[in-house]
Each structure stands twice: as C-alpha cells, then as structure tokens.
Amino acid sequence: MANTITEQRLAGGPRPELDLTQAEWQSSTQGVGDVQVAFVEGYIALRNRRSPEIPAVIFSPGEWRAFVLDARDGAFDLT
Predict the structure, then answer these.
(1) CA dist list (Å): 8 to 34, 56, 66
(2) Nearest residue to 8 via CA among 58, 55, 66
(3) Most buried residue, 28, 37, 48, 52, by CB count within 10 Å?
(4) Gap between the Cα atoms of 66 and 33, Å rounded
C-alpha cells in the first residue's frame, strides 16, 4: 500500500479534468498563507490564491488524507 503522496501518485491513474470555474475556494480560517482548497466532484483541488491562473493540484480523497497527515507530522517543514 502506498504511504506517501508521491507513492500514491505513482500508483494512481490520470487526474480527472474538473470544471473549477464554479468552485468555492476556501482559505485558511486563520487568514495566514496563500493556499486555497475546493471540494469538487469528490476530489480536492489546491491552488495558490495569489496565482489562480496556474492550474490547481488535484487530489483524490486518499491522497488528500495522506497529505494532511504528512503535513501534521511535519513532513513538509522546510525551516
């Protein structure tokens, strides 16, 4: 079973073509950072609020869960 997002992406199939034109983008409740998420057609889209023209990264529910758990564990702490 794939444990990291990278392993899941390698094991997964192609990303769906989602229509994000009507997506309800959500920002952090703390108002910190430039990341926004939207829940569309059973997937999770992630984008940079300051550059919405750049395509969003699309996660399956399993990938999103792995991402959140890894973030909580400090896997992406670059400081």
Answers:
(1) 25, 18, 9
(2) 66
(3) 37
(4) 21
